[in-house]
Amino acid sequence: SHAPRMSQTAAMLVDSFEPEGFTTLAKDSIFMMPHLGVLASVHPEAAMHVFERDCLVILGTCVAARGQGKSGKPCFSWKLSARSGPQQGTVAFGDLARVPLALGETAELEVTPDRGFDVGGGPGKTVRREVKGGEVGLVLDGRGRPLALPEDRETCRATVDRWAKAMDLYGSD
């Protein structure tokens, strides 16, 4: 909950839990949840009110494909219908992408995984869902599951650097 940038929190959640399919990402604003657990034992309604209003910071939605492939080959294509206008693209295996989607904004997202990949509907099956925006927006994760790093140190370093830039982990310097 104390990462300097919201994108760093989102990256830690995605890399550690390795969600598959569509997942809403959120963080505890100021490490409040343990205290709300105690409050809930004496006043559940007040705890729930504080939890929903002041505790959770919505980071956005992560869409991650399960499966393995060859780096650079297509993992999934996507089409987003948002207030700001339609967008679409393709995520290659091994890549991450971030699409702005504001806090409180919802949009319709259609994801079509390439052969051998699954985003929640079965291998190769298109999934359409409403997604929520947030502080980070929409995270499109084509790195496959389980996550794997290249064996070669230089390739590994370049890969992690590419992921950090895609997530804007350290700013645009």
In short:
The chain is of the alpha+beta class and 173 residues long. The protein has helices at 6-17, 33-42, 44-55, 153-167; strands spanning 21-28, 56-64, 74-82, 85-92, 96-99, 106-113, 127-132, 137-141.
Keywords:
173 residues; alpha+beta; 4-stranded mixed beta sheet; globular
How many beta-strand runs? Answer: 8
Structural class: alpha+beta
- Along the chain, the helix and strand elements come as HEHHEEEEEEEH
Low-pLDDT regions: none
Task: Report the β-strand fraction as a percent range.
Answer: 25-35%
Number of continuous helical runs: 4
Overall shape: globular
Mean pLDDT: 93
CA radius of gyration = 17 Å
For the sheet with most strands, the description reads: 4 strands, mixed
Helix content: 25-40%
Measured between the Cα atoms of the first and last residue, the distance is 24 Å
Strand line-up in the sheet with most strands: 1-2-8-5
